[in-house]
Amino acid sequence: MQDKNTSGAAGRFVHALAEGVAIFGGLCLVAASILTGISIVGAQVYKPLPGEIELVEILCGLAVFAFLPFCQLKKGHVGVDLLINALGSGAIRWTQLIGDIIITVLLALIAWRHWLGTVDKFHNGEFTPILFVPLWWGYAASMVLLVVAVIVGVWCIFSDIRDIRRGAQIEIPLGVH
Question: Which residues cross the membrane (predicted)?
């Protein structure tokens, strides 16, 4: 995989996009932690923060979807390569390509089904029980993050193909291969 500085404008855009949504995911987790802390302290002093659990659920769900593009970009998904390393860098390149294709297809499938769920939640008019936050808001925000994950996955596939054609040196993330 080429360094983001040498992969052109598209590569820099995809890297910035993945990094941006990962930062957003981190901020979601920070916000969820703060809300939980406020609720715990509030429960000890007076009463817990009403609806805190609903917001924490939404924020944690968004964080999961926000980390997917960065994980895909950095080849951070789980891989089991007991014999591939012995076959050389060519085999590693091809298994990375095959893995990226599989993950991107799965992300696209999840995005499609998630879209149907978003539309369903929108038409049903479901709300959270305490704060009355429309459920489709969280689904819609997650849908945007899934689209980003699919875009990053497609870029990774093209990047893998480019690297195979060039015979580029393989970057093996620590702990993955």
Answer: 21-43, 55-73, 94-116, 136-158
Amino acid 170: pLDDT: 66
Which residues, including other chains, have CB under 8 Å from residue 139's CB and lie 6 or more apart?
114, 117, 118, 121, 122
169 Cα distance to chain centroid: 26
Rounded distance, CA 3 to CA 77, Å? 19
Question: Are the C-beta atoms of residues 73 and 16 closer than 8 Å to each other?
Answer: no
- Cβ burial 105-132 (10 Å sphere, 16+ → b, else e): eebbebbeebeeebeebeeeeeebeeee
Backbone angles phi, psi at 48, to 5 degrees: -65, 160
Q: What would the two tokens of residue 147 be?
A: 């689209």
